[in-house]
Prior knowledge:
Blueprint (H helix, E strand, L loop, with lengths): L1 E3 L7 E3 L7 E3 L19 E10 L2 E10 L18 E11 L13 E3 L7 H4 L7 E6 L5 E2 L5 E8 L6 E8 L9 E3 L4 E4 L20 H4 L4 E6 L4 E8 L8 E2 L1 E7 L9 E5 L10 E2 L6 E7 L10 E2 L4 E6 L7 E6 L16
Parallel strand pairs: 6-8, 14-21, 16-19
Antiparallel strand pairs: 1-2, 2-3, 4-5, 5-6, 6-7, 8-10, 9-10, 10-11, 11-12, 12-13, 14-15, 15-17, 17-18, 20-22, 22-23
Amino acid sequence: MLLSGNAFGNYVMTGPDLDHLTRDCRHPRLLSANKPDPSSFLGREWIVATYRVGSIIHALVHNEFHDAVSPLCMPGESGPANPCWYNAVTYAISNDDGVTFHQGADLVVAAPTSRWNPQRGAPAGKRSRLYGYFGPSGIVRRSDGYYYSTFVVINNPDSARGTCVMRTRDLSNPKSWRAWDGKAFTHQFDNPYSPTTTEPSQACAAVSPDLIHDFGGSLTYNAYLNRFVLTGFSTRQPGPGPKPCGFAFSFSADLVTWTRPQVFATADPPSKDAPDCIRGDLGMAYYPSLIDPSDSTTNFEMTGRTPFLYYVSGLGSPRRALIRVRVRFDDLSRAPSGGANE
């Protein structure tokens, strides 16, 4: 068993099962290249989704480029402290059971719709200006033979955010992913640095934008509810004034039409981008994911009625902790006199 760690050296936890995991801090599985060239799409890299097929482990990577050269940004700083933020989804592969991951020349899954331009992407103040595709979810294979993943899109700096869905039949081919375009899974991602690409290219279409906005994180299929479940951090609750934010679920039968996220555990907002959120019961907690030990699939893409919720506490401090708690889903249509998501 191998669980990804949240560090751009991509250290992992390994063990025979979920009850016996050990953190390996000696062997990074994918060292971030941290190149100063945005066209390389080899900046600071986080493996955020893996999927084993036979002896091969495929990975989707959250790739951040922060302009450490332009005086409009933060010269000398290539990390998240730099408010210039140009993001892409890339691909990595492991042929040695997850001991190491590597990337080839064709690594781009989803690139921003325009080339990096600090004149457009640099913030007017201290607040970051995010641009591109962010945070792919875990990968789920459906009975139609396609592999699916969700991710966040910000088409232009300071534009509205949204959640997109993409799929492929061939995980080994980064160029094979196609996203929902509003009618079908036909949107093809263009590399803005290709000489044949006309800028700006079209972005993928956000799904259920009025309900989920940019909500996302962990994607599984729940066999008890017969629904796909997105588990993430919600900062957009209906109603005026301060409101509780935190871990939430959203449900879908087809990955395109989603329910409004339901907060079930409150936590502090992860950034200053959510001024309406009040402090929550869990404090600085983030990265919620559902994993069900009873899942018989190799990649833990299925959950049942009582999976574990895993999350990181102490976000923003040097001492973080990985915590898990049991959650239970109650299907109201099956209950004779009510029930609730716990």
